[in-house]
Amino acid sequence: MKIxxxxxxxxxxxxxxxxxxVILLQLxxxxxxxxxxPALFGYSCLSVLSGSxxxxxxxxxxxxxxxxxxxxxxxxxxxxxxGFYTTHRIIxxxxxxxxxxxxxxxxxxxxxxxxxxxxxxxxxxxxxxGKLFLAVRSPLAAACIFLLGxxxxxxxxxxxxxxxxxxx
Length: 168
Prior knowledge:
The protein is an alpha+beta fold. It is about 40% helix and about 25% strand.
């Protein structure tokens, strides 16, 4: 049973590290501007706002994208157009760029997507987590969550140090 407890604590610590990284990314996005997409090791997180990719991706989902050098038909990509990000599926490609379409849309997007517009390929979809991601969008909310998480981390480490010192 002690092994299970240790595994659970390790998983909780790993989760808190990932959460802190996501929050730091979100803070960086707020600091660097609305249209900059912060990345950690080439990965970026975005909250989906519309249902144009239903049923594969729903409004309120969190997507994790990764920049690549090559994309192929069937890939779900996120691209920038007029300062806004859109996530659609590649249905064809030619010299003009990628032809994209939202799965729930009746027609393909009007303009081809040039390779320099592509922010990345969708690697993971976390259902409904985008709502939380949007909640920490404000710098104040993200800073508060980061400080609370850091305080909890420090207190848990302090408790461990105190327990070791008492037993020695």
